[in-house]
Amino acid sequence: MSSEKEKSEPVIEVEQSQPSAMNVVDNPLQRVSKDRVLSDVEEFCKTHNLAEHTALFRRAALVARDSTNFANVSELEEEELAALHYERDHKWAGPFQMWYSIILCAVGAATQGWDQTGSNGANLSFPEEFGIAGTGRDEWIVGVVNSIIFLTAGLIGAFIVDPLNHYLGRRGEIFLTALILFATPIGSGFTHSWQALFAVRFILGIGIGAKNATVPIFSSELAPARIRGALVMFWQLWVTFGIFAGFAANVIVKDVPRIAWRLQLGSAFIPAFFLALGIYFCPESPRWLMKHGKHDKAFDSYLRIRSHPIIAARDLYISYVMYLEEIANAKGASYFARLRDCFTVPRIRRANYGASTVMLAQQMCGINIISFYSSSIFRDVGYTADQALYASLGYGALQFVFTIPTVFLIDTKGRRTLTLMTFPLMFLFLLAAGLSLLKTTGTQGERLGPLVLFVYLFTIMYSLGEGPVAFQYSAEVFPTVQREQGMAWAVCINNTFAGVLGLTFPRMTTVFTPTGAFGFYAALNLIAWGMIFCFVRETKELTLEEIDQVFSVPTSTYIKYESTVWLPWFIKRYILFRNVPKPAPLIEKVQFVDHDHTATHSVAHTEDKEEK
Predict the structure, then answer these.
(1) Transmembrane region positions (predicted)?
(2) How far apart are alpha carbons 250 and 28 in whole angstroms?
């Protein structure tokens, strides 16, 4: 934004004494008088080439000032009042352009799952093609070829998002990464050495990492606040759909002689093609346009994705005011300074503990040894290649189907509760799957049936807990100012350790034996359960301000509370099946007086306290 525009911004009063870590999300428009709001709106419209819409924005600002009581705004026209009533009463209503853009974001999520399952089927034949089907060094080569997309996604792709978004915009960045995801799978199918395949997948991983960190942001900035949380869940749902679709493609091309693995890797271009083509018809993120001083274009974008001009003007103006709040809270901090805050500011550090824990636990649980190598696992224990592909298809179908109920469970049972309940069962089922491999007598069904059964049960538990929770939780726990940096770190943790898993598992099955490898990851489920118990705090049905308070409690205090209050309740409620009331979340509060009102409010206490 130019310096001239910055000088002419209307003044929004900000409580400068609040530390940026607090992220107190009271409505800034309620801190000033009605006349001051209207005066600021006039200046805003005059400054940002929206003067012809001044009357509309005056009414919209009054709605934004108290959006739950919009019916009391006497200045509203009858048509505008009807539009606001309809929006309130029809949660999922919206114009075609909004839903088109959100569906396209779902296609972006599906590319993630498809890319990782193409190699699952290709593992059955490309090692023979390149002469790396042996043990020892060959196993490490197969591992690095499979894992490199996750290593580059986490270590490179996640951290180039900020400059790509700055210079290209959300649409431009998604288009660029979609082109990478379109070209590299096709290139994979034309490689003639493992070195060339490695190089192509190296670039593919960068595209995956950059796309994964941008598409959810783009979706959240287009979506209305009333359904934004559900759309974060849709990301994981459509990732699992991409996994299922990738396994289906593996089965479809399995009978093509010699080049089946090339088609399995190459088929991942399909969703990327539709993403690259479709993004052209999406509006740019209005928040990105606003941050770059293009407020008039931001309003045009909102008009395309909101059902009425009054709603578009309301959302633009409140976004603008909240953006000024973020700028004041950040106090001019650079990208790397805000990233440092994720490790040094107590409230944000505790959120980082939680987000890093659920992201790491997603890899520790062992789900990706199935996602990456299920076809190879099933073949090595006695299935034919075709049977292994069909068994993997069943795995993909189960993961997709059982993610659907979690969309509803996550806000009723809670993120922490779902993970704490499912991880012990995941431990049991994965351990049982490994032990079932010790049976070497009997028919094929008697030997292999238990393995498939326990892998499927393990997958169901994952889909009902850790699978959908990881990204949902990480997206909501960081304060607004540090959200991009916090999510970049969380995505880095997730993808990097996925790469480590993909790299080491082929060799691990030889050194540990398949039973030992399954047992190793089963044990990690118990360790992950302990980490979740200590560091993952419940955020179900909490406002952003309440989440801030939850993470202001020192870790040692939190662990003591969970051990002496929450854990006894959990045992009584879910093991002894007693109908006991749930304890309130542990929240530390401190009182301050709003400088425009006499009432006091509870906010997060952010003093740096000793943690154990």
Answers:
(1) 98-114, 140-161, 173-190, 196-218, 230-253, 259-282, 357-376, 388-410, 417-436, 448-465, 486-505, 517-536
(2) 53
Token pair in block for residue 410: 């996550």
Range 590-599 average pLDDT: 39
| Segment 133-157 mean pLDDT | 91
Single out the residue of 262, 284, 251 nearest to residue 171, CA to CA: 284
Secondary-structure breakdown of the chain: helix, strand, coil percentages, each rounded to the nearest 5: 75, 0, 25
Which DSSP category does 332 fall into? T
Q: What is the pTM of this model?
A: 0.79
Strand 589-593 relative to strand 600-604, pairing:
antiparallel
- The Cα 375–Cα 197 span in angstroms is 20
Confidence of residue 571 (pLDDT cuts 50, 70, 90): confident
Yes or no: say if 185 and 118 are a contact pair by the CB < 8 Å rule. Answer: yes
CA dist., res. 33 & res. 401, Å (int): 51
Phi, psi (5° rounding) for residue 600? -100, 155
Q: Which residues contact 56 (CB under 8 A, 6 or more apart)?
A: 309, 310, 313
3-state secondary structure of 200: helix
b/e for 302-315, b at 16 or more Cβ within 10 A? bbbbbbbbbbbbbb
Q: Which two tokens stand for residue 472?
A: 């949902």
Torsion angle, alpha carbons of 390, 391, 396, 397, to 10: 80
The pLDDT tens digits of the residues spanning 249-293 come to 999 988 887 898 999 999 999 999 999 999 999 999 998 999 888
- CA-wise closest residue to 546 among 588, 506, 518: 588
pLDDT of residue 79: 92
CA–CA distances in Å: residue 202 to residues 132, 144, 279: 19, 10, 24
